[in-house]
Amino acid sequence: xxxxxxxxxxxxADYTAKQAHVELAxxxxxxxxxxAPTLGDRVAYVIIKGSAxxxxxxxxxxxxxxxxxxIPIDTKYYLDNQLAKPLGRIFEPILGxxxxxxxxxxxxxxxxxxxxxxxxxxxxFAKKTFTCMGCKKPLVGKEESGGAVCSNCAPRVGELYQKTxxxxxxxxxxxxxxxTQCQRCQxxxxxxxxxxxxxxxIFYMRMKxxxxxxxxxxxxxxxxxxxxxx
Length: 230
Fold this sequence. Notes:
This protein is mainly alpha-helical. The protein has seven helices and three strands; from the N terminus they run βαββαααααα.
């Protein structure tokens, strides 16, 4: 995440054109005025996936908000705007202009489609449904809803529980190591980590690890309902 973050100073209150960091600061102020950037602060942001035709200032988002809500990042933006030209200058003398320009586009590349988050319209009627942790089938009905597995995967519940438990354990170990690294950095192994430096790659890794532990813990809790039902 730290390698994708763009930072710009909020130098003035009024800009002639819409700027990505200015629009983000306004959105953050509406979400939480106390923690939002103020005049003179540097605003860190990443570019996320959005609807077709959306401008960059509409797709700028706070990196922490992106991590906490699992929002997909627009990798194509970074390829086109951050990597394409430098790679072209490096490979053009070797491959020629035509081949150098086709490095990031053509039949040899693969595009993975990820649904972008949307607010309003039909999304108001969307309903979140849990999927089976075995076969990924949507869990429907009173018996399956909110549980961990469907009726077909019920015989495998022990195996799937052990797999999820092992996943939680591995994630907790990773988070613990990053937490300890941050404690060493701040000079105390007995105090809470209060660092929020958005210039540090470990900060984003620690926040991501924390979110992963929380999400995996929620998956583990789903087995409790199945155990009560059985």
